[in-house]
Specification:
single chain, 86% helix
Length: 183
């Protein structure tokens, strides 16, 4: 009997500790989100003051504390693009798109990054995903902006294909002349 009471009191004590632990975790997560929001605001302020290094540090810390808020990711992507670090921006935003697969703004930014990095097909695919997401969300303004981007990307792709086609034709003519010289 005494053994049963001891066992029951241990179970109750453990359960009580566990619920406090879960409670502390929830409070801790809320504190982290609040801290992340403050760091985000600090990053925006530093950007306005043109303190790029401080802004980047604030946004990175914000992302670390709250990886579920896409806004810091978007600004970090924009900072990379403004610094003309296109390849890094594409890699960063590609990972961001995997973390936020239903965020039209993320795919729009990824499309811009790919375009600036000279990768037209990935830019078209990201823009198409952005268009679909924005249209589904009822964000007509962003869907229209993305549709314009898609049209531009398609024209750029066609121009590149035409240019490559004419280059290939010229190369074939040169090779033909080299193998069949006139006497």
């Amino acid at each position: 009997m005494l053994r049963g009471v001891l066992l029951l009191s241990l179970v109750l004590a453990f359960t009580g500790c566990q619920s406090k632990s879960v409670e502390n975790t929830v409070v801790s997560q809320n504190d982290q989100k609040d801290a992340a929001k403050k760091l985000f605001a600090q990053g925006v302020l530093m950007l306005q003051q043109q303190n790029l290094k401080g802004a980047v540090e604030s946004f990175q810390a914000s992302i670390k504390l709250d990886p579920t808020d896409p806004n810091a990711y978007l600004i970090m992507g924009q900072i990379l693009l403004n610094a003309q670090q296109f390849d890094q921006a594409v890699q960063f935003l590609d990972q961001t798109a995997k973390n936020f697969p239903n965020n039209g703004a993320v795919f729009y930014m990824l499309s811009i990054a790919n375009r600036m990095d000279g990768k037209i097909l990935p830019a078209v695919l990201a823009a198409r995903r952005s268009f679909d997401l924005n249209k589904a969300d009822g964000n007509q303004e962003m869907a229209q902006k993305t549709a314009i981007l898609l049209e531009e990307l398609i024209k750029e792709g066609q121009a590149m294909q035409a240019k490559e086609g004419s280059s290939e034709s010229q190369e074939k003519m040169i090779k033909s002349k080299e193998t069949n010289p006139k006497k």
